[in-house]
Specification:
With about 200 residues, the protein is an alpha/beta fold. About 35% of the residues lie in helices and about 15% in strands. Bound molecules: adenosine-5-diphosphoribose.
Length: about 200
């Protein structure tokens, strides 16, 4: 099995229309606790999956922040996607948080839990290639750089211990967001095991 660093890809695109060469078979939705849709990537996924997704989710009873629930992909199956993992990220409440060490804030722990829960579900359901959006960094205002560190740190850590998913795609919605992920990845030796603040 390839090294974790060789099993992740940072791409720019719409998570509902992944190019076939990405080989995506599961996508993550940045949902809200109702699981009944909304704006942003949640709205895009519900539009693309069609009304059956909403009907299905009405029976799920919602999802608490930091957790995740798996559903079929409904109309997205035509694009090779078999599962949608709905996870609810935290709303950023810490304002201009002083550069507090990652992991010390309540929001950090909840965002990390979103990634962990989705990865666990992907392994349980043998999802070969899983695509993540940048959870919580839109409407929920989580700082992008901080969120990228949490995302990359947890995904790389999980891939070091698991063979499934075989690959993880960070599907950024803009080149600027992808540049943030690439910068964070390239500088991982500075922050991943650091004891400095921030
Ligand atoms: N494909 C990939 N990424 C997307 C797409 C898309 N089609 N649409 C938006 N994004 C990106 C945003 O640019 C951002 O980087 O997804 C990231 C998450 O942004 P949001 O969708 O706003 O999600 P979030 O910040 O987690 O807020 C969730 O917003 O839409 C509502 O119902 C949702 O209440 C929930 C809240």
């Amino acid at each position: 099995m390839d090294l974790p660093i060789d099993r992740i890809r940072i791409e720019v695109g719409d998570i509902t229309t992944p190019p076939s060469e990405w080989g995506v078979t599961g996508i993550v939705n940045a949902a809200n606790e109702s699981l009944l849709g909304g704006g942003g990537v949640d709205g895009a996924i519900h539009r693309a999956a069609g009304p059956r997704l909403l009907e299905h989710n009405k029976m799920l009873g919602g999802c608490p922040t930091g957790l995740a629930k798996i559903t079929p992909a409904f109309d997205l199956e035509g694009r090779g996607i078999r599962h949608i993992l709905h996870t609810v990220g935290p709303v950023w409440q810490s304002g201009d948080a002083v550069p507090i060490k990652i992991g010390d804030l309540h929001e950090d722990v909840l965002l990390a839990s979103c990634y962990q829960q989705c990865l666990d579900l992907a392994a349980e359901h043998s999802i070969d290639v899983l695509a993540f959006p940048a959870i919580s960094t839109g409407v929920y205002r989580f700082p992008k750089d901080r969120a990228a560190k949490i995302a990359l740190g947890h995904v790389l850590g999980f891939l070091a211990r698991h063979n499934t998913p075989r690959r993880v795609v960070f599907c950024c919605f803009s080149e600027a967001d992808a540049a943030t992920y690439r910068h964070v990845l390239d500088s991982r030796n500075e922050w991943m095991f650091s004891r400095q603040r921030g």
